[in-house]
Q: What sequence folds into this?
């Protein structure tokens, strides 16, 4: 059984939002580009506040940016 985790669609959303760069998203969310990299790679789960700021940067509800599911990797 895999572990539970918070996943996201950030990379796909950036591409669909006029190919927004990681740095542009980082600036809108008030974090470093390295934070966005870690989120996209699944190495970091954001705080609730950061999750809302990222969702707001895309003008989307939180549930369309982030999801909670089970990791399929053992």
A:
């Amino acid at each position: 059984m895999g572990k539970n985790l918070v996943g996201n669609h950030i990379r796909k959303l950036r591409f669909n939002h006029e190919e927004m760069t990681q740095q542009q998203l980082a600036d809108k969310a008030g974090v470093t580009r390295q934070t966005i990299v870690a989120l996209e790679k699944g190495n970091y789960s954001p705080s609730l506040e950061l999750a809302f700021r990222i969702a707001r940067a895309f003008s989307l509800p939180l549930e369309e940016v982030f999801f909670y599911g089970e990791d399929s990797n053992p």
